[in-house]
Amino acid sequence: MSQRLLKYFFALLLICLLVWWVDFRSLWEALSQLTLFLAGYLLLISVLLIYVSALKWKLFVESYGKEASLGYLFHLYLVGYFVNLLVPSYIGGDVVRSWYIGKRIGQHEAAASTILERYTGLVAMIFLALVFLGVVSGVPVEVQIVTVLLAVGVVGLTVAALSPSVMGVVTRLPLIGTLEGHLKKIQEALILAKERRGLLIKTMLLSFLFHSVTVVNTFVAAYAVGWYDAPFWDLFVVLPLILLIGVIPLAPSGLGLQEGAFYFFLQLIGATPAQALGVGILLRAKSYVLALWGGAVWFFIRERKEPPAASVISLK
């Protein structure tokens, strides 16, 4: 409990420092430009994002010969938002939603499906960042280098996961060996995807759509805080770095870390300090609204018994 409280304290300290650096009055001026119409628009974008994620997750679940309704998976995604309020990173929400669907299709299959759903999203996000590196001109060289290194890391992990011999060497390395169980799950999930090309193509297309809508989401948030000339294509490059920093398990749901990343990276592509932090705070507030919705959904899921899943033909 003391460790959890320490992480909350760390997160609140980061938020307070960011507000102090920006100046509260200028931050308030940026946030006060949010209209009811734009707030509703941002929530609708979130509904679309969750729908796309649930649809991709459904394809992976069905690849194991089981069926789960799109509505149920959508609700589990909302539950994940709620759980992420209580745990140090975004992984906690994934664990809970995977456990729930695992009661219907098996925990092993559920874990692999959840890993694939997340991993294909990561690959699509980094791939699009690389593509737009050749299009944009306002992204600093340092950011370009980090993006390329991330891409190399993802490729290296994928190659290692697809090669049992390489994975055996990797798991014997210091520190990494403690993650052997998680790495083997990633390996099994990626081998499944490799064997089913049609499934992989469909889910990657959904991943590209998801990340594109994520950029639109950030662009609309920028407009909502008065940054009317935000460079849309540059967001494809900097947003992956912001989101990956938010995953670092130092604070609940990356609180403070992700806002700090928005504050740093959005200024690099033209935002004022107040606009950059305002975008982070606005998107954080929206995630809390979704989390409250998820908390209500979780209550009803726990109260009623889910019907048994029906078998379907496995995707080839």
Q: Please tally the β strands and state the result.
A: 0
C-alpha end-to-end distance: 47 Å
Kindly report the oligomeric state of this protein: single chain
Enumerate the spans where pLDDT stays under 50 for 5 or more consecutive residues: 305-316
Major pleated sheet: none
- The helical percent reads over 70%
Count of individual domains = 1
Given the helix and strand composition, which structural class is it? mainly alpha
Number of helices: 13
Q: What percentage of amino acids are in beta strands?
A: under 5%
Mean pLDDT: 82
Task: Give the H and E element order.
Answer: HHHHHHHHHHHHH
Give the overall shape: globular
> Rounded to an integer, what's the Rg over CA atoms?
20 Å
Topology:
Blueprint: H1 2-22, H2 24-31, H3 36-62, H4 70-83, H5 91-105, H6 107-133, H7 141-162, H8 164-170, H9 180-195, H10 197-224, H11 232-247, H12 257-268, H13 273-303
